[in-house]
Amino acid sequence: MGRIQKRALVVIFPEFNILDVSGPVSVLYNSNFSVSYAAKDELTTSQENATVKRDISFAEAKLQLSDYEILIVPGSRPNNILPHVEHEQGQLSELVEFITSFASYTDQESVRQRTILAVCIGAYFLAFGGVLDGLSATTHRLAIPGLRDATQRYIDQTPGAKGTQVVLEGTSGPVSYLDAGRNHFGVRIITTGAMINGIDAALHFVSLGSSPSLAVEVAGLIGHQLKEI
Description:
It comes from Penicillium vulpinum. This is DJ-1/PfpI domain-containing protein. There is one protein chain. This protein is an alpha/beta fold. The chain has a single domain, classed as Class I glutamine amidotransferase (GATase) domain (Rossmann fold, 3-Layer(aba) Sandwich). It is 33% helix and 20% strand. It contains 8 helices and 13 strands. Strand 1, helix 1 and strand 2 form a beta-alpha-beta unit. The longest helix has 14 residues.
């Protein structure tokens, strides 16, 4: 039996933050991952005016959830994120529905262990979809109140919701990233602080899923100081 190709999927939306994407993708690419981009539209432009062509639609990617080991969810400024959380009718957007599907999908035949990495304010998407319920999470320090509001909204709308522990400070200062472990579907949930911390979290993912030595090697290659939580 041949080696299974390691695959990552990045979801993007209009006005996404390019560093939230390029940081983790650089780590994964140099860790021998194949990286694909999913979006609602054929072309999507970041807040920095970089345009990305999608590889796959959300509908198509939803049929291939077991193919991906990690889902990268970038953020943006809150006013760029909130329009993509819900439809006008109050239903969750296709993007949020896709994220929740990835977070709850189970495939007994797949050998892949799946992870969601939400970078910076990308944690908002997870919060609105209930993906953070019962877990701990972090985000950019300036977006902490908004994350608390989003998780509280999910509690208010969902009977039996457990809530989310929103964390800003650790024992040694601001949290770079927070690995909440695996949810009850077996999907690991990781959130990060600032934009640059997407690199730290991606290296953490590589250390867990491949090897610590590979994470050290990739960190050196891209000139980044390897951090632990």
